[in-house]
Amino acid sequence: MKNMIILALRAAMLRRDSFQQVADDPDEILKSFGTVLMASMLFGLGLVGVVGEGAADLDTNTLFDRLISLWLVAITTLLGWVMWSASTHVLGGKFLRGGGEFRELLRAQGIGYGPLALAVLLPLATVGPPLFFVGVFWVLVTGVVSAHEVQDNDWFSNVLSTLPGWAIFVFGLLVITLSSVGVQG
C-alpha cells in the first residue's frame, strides 16, 4: 500500500515516469485500482459528511444510508474510470492514431486519480467545494499526462482524446451520484 500511495503522489505531481512505470507493468493494475478505490472512498466520505458538522449525527438509519452512499460513489467512480479510459483509448488510439493498448491506458489513468481525495474536505463550507473542483480538474490534468505517456500523441491530441471521457465522467456520473446521494454537512 505504501508503494501505491507514493506512486499516486508522484502521479499527482505529474511525474511522467510514474505513468510510464504503471503502463509498462501489467501487475500495476492493482495499484491503479487501489488508487481509484481509495480516492472514491475519500470522495464518498466527503459526500456523506464524515468531516465537519455532520460527522456527529449517527444513528442506525443514517449509518445505513451513508454506507449505501459510499458503495454508490465507489461503483460510480470505478465505472467512470473504465469508461474514461475506454473513451480516451478509442479517440486517441483509434481516431488520432496513437499508440498504446487499452490496459496500459487504464493503469496509467487510474494511478492519476489521487487528487480526487481532496473531496474528503467537501463538507467544509469555505474550503471544501473549491478544493473538490481543484481535485477534479487535477485528475483531468493527470489524465492528459497519462494519455501522453501511453499513446505517444502530441499534447493537443491528448487533450482532445481525454476531455470528452472526463466530461462524461464528471458531468454524467458524478452528477448522478451527487443527486442520488445528496451532499450532507
Q: Topology of this structure?
A:
Blueprint: H1 2-12, H2 16-24, H3 29-47, H4 60-95, H5 102-111, H6 128-151, H7 155-181
Helix pairs in contact: 1-2, 1-3, 2-5, 2-6, 3-4, 3-5, 4-5, 4-7, 5-6, 6-7
- Number of distinct helices: 7
- Biggest pleated-sheet summary: none
Which band does the percent of strand residues land in?
Answer: under 5%
- Anisotropy-based shape: globular
pLDDT averaged over residues: 85
Structural class, from secondary structure content?
mainly alpha
What gyration radius follows from the Cα positions, in whole Å?
A: 16 Å
Give the beta-strand count: 0
Determine the fraction of residues in helical runs and give it as a percent range: over 70%
Low-confidence stretches: none
| N-end to C-end Cα span | 30 Å
Run of helices and strands = HHHHHHH
